[in-house]
Amino acid sequence: MRIAPFLTEQFFAEYEFSAKYLLAASDCETMSIGELLRLSGSSLEELGNLTLGYTESQGDPQLRYQISEMYSEIRSEDIVVLTSPIEGIYLAMQTLLEPEDNVIALRPAYDALNNVAQHLCREVLAWNLIPGTDRWELDFDQLESIIGPQTRMLVVNFPHNPTGYVPSNSEFERLIKLARKYDIWLFCDEIYRGLEFEQAIPSAADLYERSIVLSGLSKTYGLPGLRAGWLVIRNKDLRDQLINWKHYTTICPAGPTEFLARKALLVKEKLAERSKAIIQENLKLCEAFFTRFPEHFIWRRPLAGSVAFIEVDLTKLGFDSATAHCHHLAQNHGIVLLPGKCLGFTDTFVRLGLGRAGFGESLEAYASVITNGESESY
Question: How many other CB atoms are there within 10 angstroms of residue 181's CB atom?
């Protein structure tokens, strides 16, 4: 059985490393290994003395302890360290889902959160975020209406990629109550947690015993090249089954990654604050940009995270789809925006990445294309 094309990663593979202006990146500004070690009070000599043997399948005990300290109800034994955050999506769904199951998945979303489930079970039903006048909204009545006896898992992502939506505390409590009422597993991708602009949201791991929480160091902490991630699973039987599946995939995490992840978590607050400072400056640039082009875009300001989801007026831009617009920008102007279609949504949206230090230059290049058209070719 073939799995659906991974549209987001295929799009980035085509343009990410050749285009000059990367406006769609979902991560935050990164740093060198040397910078990370200096920030954490460590040295390159420590890294150089690391031996390259096998590591524990569930993950280094000290690293698992550091991760557990990021939650209020979690023990180190509840943590499974991953070789890559995306591995957690595959492992959790492979462990839990059967061919007769249904899954409900929040959309738009990163492809893997929908496609892996679609590959494994009978049906994936969409719970769509609703674009309001100036913000995104959830419809809980719609969610409850599509829950059925075969619903095995609800898949969400908060803070949300690509909209930057964050549920209020009451909305989050309502979500947990629904999952508990229908005895549904809740898979919550929390890779952007810690990038809330106002009130921090709780982790589903602390609120619901049948949650599976995914997180890592790629987004909030600006370390995507480490490929460091983890799952939080309070249910021991499920955790043991998942680790068995892990033996069939990566067996164990990479030692250098675990070493550097331990160092990063020593200074996690500094890394997160660094990311948030860059995002806040870039949001100011966005406000000015969308004020400048009110007829071309609908701007719904994100509440958290390092991405925003922008509705485009295709007539004004001269294209019949956001996908066509994005390919044209990349091929002719070296500007990369991600089409909303890649994320399972209407082809009138694009994703904007807010976490990079070079955002201003890239946004101005886009402004020049809108203003001057083809005279500003790449």
Answer: 10
Alpha helices in 121-203 (DSSP H): 140-146, 169-181
Instruction: Indicate the pTM of the whole model.
Output: 0.95
Cα end-to-end distance, the chain, whole Å:
41
Q: Which CATH number fits domain 7-31+270-376: 3.90.1150.10, 2.30.40.10, 3.30.390.30, 3.30.870.10?
A: 3.90.1150.10
Tokens of 192: 């952007």
Mean pLDDT split into 10-residue runs, the chain, 378 residues: 92 96 97 97 95 97 98 98 96 97 98 96 96 94 96 98 96 97 98 95 96 98 97 98 97 97 98 98 98 96 98 94 97 97 97 97 96 59
Q: Rounded to 5 degrees, what angle do the CA atoms 165, 88, 80 make?
A: 110
Number of H helices, E strands in the chain: 15, 15
Bridge partners (DSSP) listed for residue 188: 156, 213
Backbone angles phi, psi at 65, to 5 degrees: -65, -45
Domain boundaries, the chain: 7-31+270-376, 33-267
> Can you read off the two tokens belonging to residue 160?
């949300």
Q: How far is 200 from 68, CA to CA, in rounded Å?
A: 18
| Nearest alpha-carbon partner for 188 in 168, 214, 210 | 214
Structure tokens at 26: 């979902």
User: With respect to CATH, is domain 33-267 assigned 3.40.640.10?
Assistant: yes
Q: At what angle do helices 7-15 and 322-333 cross, to 10 degrees?
A: 20
CA distances from 82 to 214, 294, 347 (A): 10, 43, 33
